[in-house]
Design brief:
Layout (H helix, E strand, L loop, with lengths): L1 E7 L5 H14 L3 E7 L10 E4 L4 H10 L2 H10 L4 E4 L1 H6 E3 L11 E6 L10 E5 L8 E5 L4 E5 L3 E6 L2 E7 L2 E4 L10 H7 L6
Parallel strand pairs: 1-2, 1-3, 3-4, 4-12, 5-6
Antiparallel strand pairs: 6-9, 7-8, 10-11, 11-12
Helix pairs in contact: 1-5
């Protein structure tokens, strides 16, 4: 049986995410069929959901305008997994200190946009992540930084700040796991139980 993996295809590297989901599924003996989502009606049929990076205000506006925001919230309320990366993390969190972003309030944390600097300040680092045996090659591009965390688990930190968190069925990362051939973050989000 194949899992339907919805990838919100508003902005960001949604094709790279789709490929990473397929690789992660194979590594766990599963099969996933990625579906690009731009309008409402598809998310209720998805087993897995991914909210990629891009520009958080544009993503937020699109989710609200197309009726996707309520569907994403309902998906998580059913206990289905969501992976939100970079700008997707910003939109999924409780607050980013920017009134232009309508947050989904799925991760009990506050984020700071572009906290690691501009495009030219992008970097890659080997990151220890809870649930992974070996460090993950994390790529940070105009990355947000997680500030205050409430009732969520910090999975990874960099320079003293959380950069990956789990809140129930939701994992959020400040980095771009799709920009590497390593699909373990997607595996952690979609194919591994948080209880081990």
């Amino acid at each position: 049986m194949s899992l339907t993996a919805g990838v919100v295809a508003v902005q960001g590297d949604f094709r790279e995410h789709a490929a990473a989901i397929e690789r992660a599924a194979r590594a766990h003996g599963e099969r996933a069929d990625p579906v690009e989502i731009r309008s409402s009606g598809t998310i209720p049929d998805c087993d897995l959901l991914l909210l990629p990076g891009g520009e958080s205000t544009a993503i937020s506006n699109h989710l609200q305008r197309e009726g996707l925001a309520d569907e994403i919230v309902a998906h998580v309320a059913e206990g289905k997994p969501l992976l939100a990366t970079c700008a997707g993390l910003i939109v999924a969190c409780a607050d980013a200190g920017d009134e232009r972003v309508e947050h989904l309030n799925l991760i009990d944390a506050v984020v700071e946009r572009n906290a690691f600097g501009r495009q030219r300040d992008s970097f890659e680092t080997e990151l220890g992540v809870t649930g992974l045996d070996e460090p993950f090659p994390a790529v940070f591009i105009r990355a947000p930084r997680i500030g205050e965390t409430g009732d969520c688990e910090v999975l990874a930190s960099f320079d003293g700040h959380p950069v990956a968190v789990r809140d129930g069925p939701v994992i959020g990362t400040a980095f771009h796991p799709e920009l590497t051939d390593d699909a373990r973050i997607h595996g952690l989000a979609f194919f591994e139980s948080p209880d081990g």
